[in-house]
Amino acid sequence: MFRLQGSKVLAVDMTGDAVKAKNGSMVAYDGQMAFKKLSGGGEGLRGMVTRRLTGEQMTVMEVRGQGTCWFADRASEINLVSLRGDTLHVESSNLLATDAGLRTGTTFTGLRGASQGNGLFTTTVEGHGQAAILSDGPAVVLRVSPQYPLTVDPGAYIAHQGSVRQSFQSGVTFRTLLGEGGGEAFQIRFEGDGLVYVQPSERNTIAGEV
Q1: What is the third-level CATH fold of 2-198?
Q2: Mind listing the pLDDT tens digit for each residue in 137-162?
Q3: What are the φ and ψ backbone dihedral angles of 76, each rounded to 5 degrees?
Q4: Is-contact 58 11, C-beta < 8 A?
Q5: What is this structure's pTM?
């Protein structure tokens, strides 16, 4: 159902089924399509409450019909992820599209800095199907194993899946070592067995500090 045309355009072939995608990301389509705007960040009452608490505004559209839709977002690289009953945790800004049958929501992942007590939330995608995630530059998929935990700069983190425990460590980050940090620095540590997706460009919105 999902296929890439180049590295920056997602093509979705539909035969009466549907796909959920970031609002405004469709660049072309053929055939007969119907469009519906959805609210993101979760489904049902729990999703509404979570969005209110986190302030996460993720606007999603549902596309249903017969034909092919093409999606892209600001020339970002697109990466396909297959889910087989497991859960993908992904930054909401990095989620481009999912099979309509996949469930989405938000989950609390920890505290960003002990002194401020700010909470970190990520978007979850679970079920059986495919998801497309965005990255600034080609994403790198890193393996986490019990023998080899992984530490990631939060500005480069995109997503993770598998039996992975996520924790936050205050202190020195890669950016702070170079004298570029100005706030309370932290790193993300992953332990367990799974995959972590990182991008070769750091977001300025997080930048490894509060």
Answers
A1: Double-stranded beta-helix (3.60.160)
A2: 999 999 999 999 999 988 899 999 99
A3: -75, 155
A4: no
A5: 0.80
